[in-house]
Protein backbone atom coordinates (compact mmCIF):
# COMPACT_ATOMS: atom_id res chain seq x y z
CA UNK A 1 0.00 0.00 0.00
CA UNK A 2 1.22 3.49 -0.89
CA UNK A 3 0.36 6.50 1.28
CA UNK A 4 0.76 10.21 0.68
CA UNK A 5 1.41 10.53 4.42
CA UNK A 6 1.84 7.28 6.38
CA UNK A 7 -0.03 8.44 9.45
CA UNK A 8 -3.21 7.63 11.37
CA UNK A 9 -5.63 10.00 9.64
CA UNK A 10 -8.41 9.05 12.09
CA UNK A 11 -6.51 10.67 14.94
CA UNK A 12 -5.75 14.22 13.74
CA UNK A 13 -6.47 16.76 16.52
CA UNK A 14 -9.29 19.23 15.80
CA UNK A 15 -10.06 17.57 12.47
CA UNK A 16 -12.70 14.84 12.87
CA UNK A 17 -12.79 12.77 9.68
CA UNK A 18 -14.91 9.67 10.35
CA UNK A 19 -14.25 8.14 6.89
CA UNK A 20 -10.48 8.44 7.30
CA UNK A 21 -8.19 5.45 7.70
CA UNK A 22 -5.04 4.57 9.58
CA UNK A 23 -2.19 4.61 7.04
CA UNK A 24 0.61 4.51 9.62
CA UNK A 25 1.53 0.96 8.58
CA UNK A 26 1.73 1.59 4.82
CA UNK A 27 4.32 -0.30 2.78
CA UNK A 28 5.61 2.94 1.20
CA UNK A 29 5.18 6.66 1.83
CA UNK A 30 5.48 9.43 -0.75
CA UNK A 31 8.03 11.97 0.45
CA UNK A 32 9.42 15.21 -0.92
CA UNK A 33 12.83 15.65 0.71
CA UNK A 34 13.09 19.32 -0.34
CA UNK A 35 9.81 20.08 1.48
CA UNK A 36 11.09 20.27 5.05
CA UNK A 37 7.54 20.42 6.43
CA UNK A 38 6.47 17.19 4.69
CA UNK A 39 5.37 14.50 7.15
CA UNK A 40 7.77 11.54 7.30
CA UNK A 41 6.99 8.34 9.17
CA UNK A 42 10.45 6.93 10.07
CA UNK A 43 9.03 3.37 10.15
CA UNK A 44 7.84 3.46 6.51
CA UNK A 45 10.24 3.50 3.50
CA UNK A 46 10.02 6.61 1.33
CA UNK A 47 9.29 7.07 -2.36
CA UNK A 48 10.91 10.35 -3.40
CA UNK A 49 9.73 12.79 -6.03
CA UNK A 50 12.35 12.91 -8.82
CA UNK A 51 11.26 16.25 -10.29
CA UNK A 52 14.19 18.57 -9.61
CA UNK A 53 13.28 21.64 -7.56
CA UNK A 54 9.70 20.44 -6.97
CA UNK A 55 8.88 21.63 -3.45
CA UNK A 56 5.20 20.69 -3.14
CA UNK A 57 4.04 17.51 -1.47
CA UNK A 58 3.08 14.60 -3.69
CA UNK A 59 -0.60 14.76 -4.54
CA UNK A 60 -2.77 12.72 -6.87
CA UNK A 61 -5.97 13.92 -8.47
CA UNK A 62 -9.32 12.69 -7.20
CA UNK A 63 -10.75 12.01 -10.66
CA UNK A 64 -7.82 10.85 -12.79
CA UNK A 65 -4.06 10.56 -12.78
CA UNK A 66 -1.09 8.29 -13.48
CA UNK A 67 0.94 6.63 -10.75
CA UNK A 68 4.21 5.33 -12.14
CA UNK A 69 6.83 3.71 -9.95
CA UNK A 70 10.30 3.28 -11.45
CA UNK A 71 13.49 1.72 -10.09
CA UNK A 72 15.51 4.96 -10.38
CA UNK A 73 17.93 3.73 -13.02
CA UNK A 74 16.64 6.27 -15.57
CA UNK A 75 18.09 9.52 -14.22
CA UNK A 76 16.92 11.73 -17.11
CA UNK A 77 13.12 11.71 -16.87
CA UNK A 78 12.83 14.84 -19.05
CA UNK A 79 13.29 12.75 -22.21
CA UNK A 80 10.59 10.30 -21.10
CA UNK A 81 10.72 7.40 -18.68
CA UNK A 82 12.69 4.37 -19.86
CA UNK A 83 10.06 1.59 -20.03
CA UNK A 84 12.60 -0.94 -18.70
CA UNK A 85 12.91 1.06 -15.46
CA UNK A 86 9.17 0.93 -14.69
CA UNK A 87 8.18 -1.33 -11.80
CA UNK A 88 4.45 -0.64 -12.07
CA UNK A 89 2.15 1.89 -13.66
CA UNK A 90 -1.53 2.52 -13.01
CA UNK A 91 -3.65 5.07 -14.82
CA UNK A 92 -7.01 5.77 -13.24
CA UNK A 93 -9.90 7.97 -14.25
CA UNK A 94 -13.53 8.26 -13.22
CA UNK A 95 -14.59 8.39 -16.90
CA UNK A 96 -13.87 5.80 -19.58
CA UNK A 97 -14.00 8.61 -22.20
CA UNK A 98 -10.83 10.28 -20.88
CA UNK A 99 -7.75 10.52 -23.09
CA UNK A 100 -4.95 8.10 -22.15
CA UNK A 101 -1.80 9.82 -20.87
CA UNK A 102 0.51 6.84 -20.62
CA UNK A 103 1.82 4.47 -23.31
CA UNK A 104 -0.24 1.34 -23.89
CA UNK A 105 2.72 -0.95 -23.14
CA UNK A 106 2.66 0.38 -19.55
CA UNK A 107 -1.13 0.47 -19.06
CA UNK A 108 -3.84 -0.21 -21.63
CA UNK A 109 -6.89 0.77 -19.55
CA UNK A 110 -8.23 2.85 -16.69
CA UNK A 111 -8.73 1.82 -13.08
CA UNK A 112 -11.52 3.55 -11.18
CA UNK A 113 -14.05 4.14 -13.95
CA UNK A 114 -17.19 5.27 -12.13
CA UNK A 115 -15.52 6.18 -8.85
CA UNK A 116 -17.31 8.98 -6.99
CA UNK A 117 -15.25 12.00 -5.93
CA UNK A 118 -15.19 12.28 -2.09
CA UNK A 119 -17.24 9.07 -1.95
CA UNK A 120 -14.87 7.33 0.46
CA UNK A 121 -14.18 4.65 -2.15
CA UNK A 122 -10.85 3.07 -3.00
CA UNK A 123 -9.28 1.36 -6.00
CA UNK A 124 -7.82 -2.05 -5.21
CA UNK A 125 -5.91 -4.60 -7.28
CA UNK A 126 -8.26 -7.57 -7.80
CA UNK A 127 -5.57 -10.24 -7.41
CA UNK A 128 -2.49 -9.39 -5.37
CA UNK A 129 0.62 -9.73 -7.51
CA UNK A 130 -1.26 -10.08 -10.82
CA UNK A 131 -0.58 -7.36 -13.39
CA UNK A 132 -1.81 -7.61 -16.98
CA UNK A 133 -0.81 -3.96 -17.70
CA UNK A 134 -4.51 -3.18 -18.17
CA UNK A 135 -5.88 -1.36 -15.13
CA UNK A 136 -9.46 -1.83 -16.38
CA UNK A 137 -8.98 -5.56 -15.75
CA UNK A 138 -6.53 -5.46 -12.82
CA UNK A 139 -8.42 -3.15 -10.42
CA UNK A 140 -11.86 -2.78 -8.88
CA UNK A 141 -13.60 -0.07 -6.88
CA UNK A 142 -14.31 -0.98 -3.26
CA UNK A 143 -16.62 0.96 -0.96
CA UNK A 144 -14.07 1.81 1.73
CA UNK A 145 -10.27 1.57 1.84
CA UNK A 146 -8.94 -1.29 3.95
CA UNK A 147 -5.19 -0.65 4.40
CA UNK A 148 -3.18 -3.82 4.77
CA UNK A 149 -6.04 -6.10 3.78
CA UNK A 150 -6.52 -7.61 0.32
CA UNK A 151 -10.06 -8.64 -0.63
CA UNK A 152 -10.63 -11.96 -2.35
Give a short summary of the structure:
With about 150 residues, this protein is an all-beta fold. A three-stranded parallel sheet has the order 1-2-3, with no helix packed on it. Strands 4-5 form a two-stranded antiparallel sheet. Strands 6-7 form a two-stranded antiparallel sheet.
Question: What does this protein look like?
Answer:
A three-stranded parallel beta sheet has the order 1-2-3, with no helix packed on it. The mean pLDDT is 84. It has two domains: 1-59, no CATH class; 61-152, no CATH class. It has one helix at 135-138; strands at 2-3, 28-31, 46-48, 64-70, 86-93, 122-125, 139-142. The chain is mainly β. The longest helix has 4 residues, at 135-138. It contains one helix and seven strands, in the order ββββββαβ.
Name the features:
3% helix; mainly beta; 1 helix; two-stranded antiparallel sheet; three-stranded parallel sheet
Summed over residues and divided by their number, the pLDDT gives a mean of: 84
Please give the alpha-carbon distance between the first and last residues: 16 Å
Sheet bearing the most strands, described?
3 strands, parallel
Strand order in space, largest sheet: 1-2-3
Order of helices and strands: EEEEEEHE
- Total DSSP helices: 1
Fold topology:
Blueprint: E1 2-3, E2 28-31, E3 46-48, E4 64-70, E5 86-93, E6 122-125, H1 135-138, E7 139-142
Amino acid sequence: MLAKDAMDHTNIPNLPLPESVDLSHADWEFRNSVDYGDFDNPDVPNIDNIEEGHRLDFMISLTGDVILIADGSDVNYLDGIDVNSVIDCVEYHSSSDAMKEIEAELDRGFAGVGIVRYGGQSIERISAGFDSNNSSVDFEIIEHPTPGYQHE
